Amino acid sequence: MTELERYKYDVLVIGAGGAGLRAAVEAREAGLRVAIICKSLFGKAHTVMAEGGAAASMGNVNSGDNWQVHFRDTMRGGKFLNHYRMAELHAKESPDRIYELEMWGALFDRTKEGKISQRNFGGHEYPRLAHVGDRTGLELIRTMQQKIVQLQQKDAREYGDAQANIRVFAELTITEIIKEGGKVAGAYGYWREGGNEVLFEAPAVVIATGGVGKTFKITSNSWEGTGDGHALALKAGANLVDMEFLQFHPTGMVWPPSVRGILVTESVRGEGGVLTNTLGERFMFKYIPEVFKDKYADNEEEADRWYLDQDNNRRPPELLPRDEVARAINSEVKAGRGTEHGGVFLDVSKRIPAEVIKKRLPSMWHQFYELAGVDITKEAMEVGPTCHYVMGGVEVEPDTAAAVGVPGLFAAGEVAGGMHGSNRLGGNSLSDLLVFGRRAGMGAAAYVKSTTPVAVSDASVKAAADRIQAPFTRAGGENAYSLHQELQEVTHNLVGIIRTGSELQDAIGKIAEIRKRSQNVSVAGDRKFNPGFHLAFDLDNMLLVAESTAKSAIAREESRGGHTRDDFPGMSDKWRQVNHISSYNGSEVVVREQKLPALPKELFDLFDVHELEKYMTPEEIAKGGSN
Ligand SMILES: Cc1cc2nc3c(=O)[nH]c(=O)nc-3n(C[C@H](O)[C@H](O)[C@H](O)COP(=O)(O)OP(=O)(O)OC[C@H]3O[C@@H](n4cnc5c(N)ncnc54)[C@H](O)[C@@H]3O)c2cc1C
Which of 21, 41, 47, 178 to mutate to test ligand 1, by most ligand atoms within 8 A of the CB atom? Predict the structure, then answer.
């Protein structure tokens, strides 16, 4: 083993997706020295896969849009379990973040008048998603990467060193957040290529590590989505909020098996795609929930007219929030009306001319043509639900993105919880990354300026190093790949789209058993180019995430958003007032209830009281907001 590499920074940002890069820019522009650390190559974070767009109420396509409408849609989508302050900041600030991105060079698609174009998406009342074809995430990352290079070029001119104040450490895995005297002192990890260990000392760490999809068997997430940040935060003493809420995107590819789970963007439905079962029925009309009946068309004629006249018709039910569409597809397949590969049909070819499909949905056309041999300009796609997004995440202070309970720790992007409540609207993640990435950078900068850094002790370094070496010291132990597969079977079968108390109990037992066996994982060979070595750490993270999800899910005895209980099918106004908080006691995840902050009067008054009656208790309604 070579000598330990050591670095000192003001702010460490773990993650180079949209949230991490936006946080890094903000902290650097506040005059601080910043390190960005990522598992993949710079520019390859999961965010590049985002397709449809970023939601912001700029009102470019329908001038009726504004932050209040966006706020209402977000709260409705989250079934009123969102942290109201996060939803408020997000709705108010996302237009500025989009214009800022444009100033930094993002080339958004345009309306005829030359404004940033905005497209329809499920759950959004107006066309709201700023987009770049169906490659919006790629453009977002490209633009912010360019911004970072620009900051580095400035440093090169000023200090003769491009990396003087902002440096990217790519292909490096962080395995631990280090605290000294109760506050953050740095982080520890290893270079993925050769395994050499690295210590970063810094008073502030921003976790921006993305999602947890790889905990599940079928997922749209990239290989990085192993819940590292969720687990790092838990182990550092932070809380996770509402981990029972996972979004199963209704439309992943179901065939061929090699591409199972890969996302079919919601834009396909936004552009007019229609869902049918094997009987040819446009089945979504059967699945419009009571709370959405006044907003969604209950017949094909009106649904079709909406594409031409959105002011005088209700939206097609294919554009219901994702949880509703995913459950509907699941029910059709279970009832024997699904395709032989366990999906349903999604067809855009009958509504839009081939050249328009290729222009508006180029990646989708390419993806199906290359991977499944299907020409979506002529034939229907076969689609089914795929684990897509985790609404639960690190509990943060909305204004600063500071992790509750751990001084110096911040979290933004998909790893943070609260913003989306029980279900995220499409497009609200990319804008979330920008709004709260910036706020995390600001929060970390303010914290660093107000605190004295503490040095990392030798004992902490030794403990972190021993943990990295541990799988190599055990011969003939458990295989990380087999355990990962076993975990994915458990989550898929027992903690998936539809849950029951007895299955969740079974899952909790099985996850504990796999976790026990995982303490004995051994890795063959050495550290160089060794994927088994990486998985040993990823597995530990995914097991903690799965435990938190299963324990939160069994505790929530209702169905809401991304959590459906067969044994408790309805929404309950008692449970709407409860967040589940997961913490780690050193051996297991413990879940407790916490009261959700009530809507303040000025936000309460944005809703029609009859709508609120569908979600809130008569006492809450009578109070009319918290102030
Ligand atoms: C196919 C697809 C399409 C989507 N389309 C849209 C869309 O159109 N609109 C929308 O709003 N949302 C969309 N989403 C959701 C959205 O893309 C994600 O929620 C978002 O990109 C997450 O960004 P992030 O910055 O939080 O993290 P990510 O982009 O996931 O980045 C995480 C970063 O953390 C790093 N990392 C993780 N663990 C470690 C570790 N231990 N050590 C060091 N580094 C680590 C990774 O290497 C990576 O750099 C889509 C998702 C998918 C899967």
Answer: 47
- What's 259's domain CATH number? 3.90.700.10
- What rounded mean pLDDT belongs to the chain? 95
Q: Which ligand 1 atom lies nearest to the CA of residue 232?
A: 41
Q: In this structure, what CATH number is given to the domain that contains residue 566?
A: 1.20.58.100
Say whether both 488 and 381 belong to one domain: no
Confirm whether 563 is domain-assigned.
Answer: yes
Q: Of 571, 586, 613, which closes a domain? A: 571
- Please state whether beta strands 578-584 and 240-241 pair in parallel, antiparallel, or not at all (unpaired): antiparallel
- Please identify, by atom number, the ligand 1 atom nearest to the C-alpha of residue 221: 53
- The catalytic residue positions are 249, 269
Model-level pTM greater than 0.85? yes
Q: What is the pLDDT of residue 140?
A: 97
Assign 627 a pLDDT band (cuts: 50, 70, 90). low
Centroid of chain to Cα 362 = 24
Same domain, 254 and 382: yes
**How many angstroms is it from 29 CA to the middle of ligand 1?**
23
pLDDT beyond 60 at 1? no
Its domain, for residue 373, covers: 250-386
The total number of structural domains that make up the chain: 2
Residue pair 393/414 in contact by the 8 Å Cβ criterion: yes
Handedness of CA 328, 332, 333, 335 (dihedral sign): positive
What is the layout of strands, in order, in the sheet containing 246-253?
246-253, 381-390, 344-347, 274-276
The SS3 of residue 163 is coil
Residue 529 in any domain: the answer is yes
C-alpha 331: how far from chain center? 25
Task: Identify which of 25, 209, 228, 432 to mutate to test ligand 1's pocket (most ligand atoms within 8 A of the CB).
Answer: 209
In this prediction, residue 376 has a pLDDT band, given cuts at 50, 70 and 90, of very high
537 closest CA partner among 489, 480, 584: 480
Please identify, among 571, 587, 622, the residue that sits at the C-terminal boundary of a domain. 571
Residues contacting ligand 1 via CB (< 6 Å): 14-20, 37-40, 45-47, 49-54, 136-137, 173-174, 208-211, 220-221, 224, 228-229, 263, 388-389, 413-415, 426-430, 433
* 144 in a structural domain: no
Identify the H or E element spanning 445: helix 428-450
Tell me 563's DSSP state.
B
What's the rounded mean pLDDT across residues 60-84? Answer: 97
